[in-house]
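User:
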Amino acid sequence: MSIDKIKVIITDLDGTLLNTNHEISTYTQTIFRELYKQNYLIIVATGRHHLDAMPLVASLGFPIYLVTSNGARIHSPEKELLFSFDIESDAVKSVLELEIDPEITTVLFKENVWQTNKYNQKLNSFQKELNYAPELVDFKDVTDFKAIKMFFTHESHGKLIDLRDRILVDHDGVFSHAFSLPYCLEFMDKSVDKSVAIAMILEIENYTFDQAISFGDGYNDEGMLMATAKGLLMGNAPDSLKNKLAHLEVILTNSQNGVAYYLAEKILNQSEVLGN
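Assistant: Predicted structure:
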């Protein structure tokens, strides 16, 4: 891969661009502003809902393309909705009728609210600003299950694997799914993937994946990491993903500003460390 060919920078948010405080560090903001000034196309692709992600990326200080809910939504730099795709109500309903372990936190991402069966402090801590509010519900009382994304979380990865396998028995070919983190299992419509959404943006801007590099730390990043000219795995990515994508370079962790340091050195040719 020739760095001279790179015109597009694609990055995940959680565990990648965001530090452990769920913020974009000052140093990272500085590097990305310089990239923007030099006319690189910046795309942020996240599993987060757009109302949740927008205040986070606003700290960059310039307009960007935003892919959210793992590709179910695309917003232009002007915040115009370019693409949206939801899971049908009946498909979601049939999953929630499986009698899911009540210890598992179940979430439906709706357009303006996220419905959940229980209050989850860890989940709520991901939001610095409550732009996207939780609504505590009993799913037995819900009538409209149409959702952008289904999300399940539990400390036990094994429990989530069991749930995934139960869901896929009767829904093979209905959903795409990924572990964004070992304790976060996500289901979208089968047509939805970050890489598919990114391809739409590249077509609009007359670029190709051969002109792009991408950064990620989760299984929901796998498609885009494989599609771009160079995919970079974060040092904090799960070992299982590092082993699966063993051909990819592993960089510093998100808490070490891994994305920014890589871009500063390789793209901007800044050998000096600017600080954190």
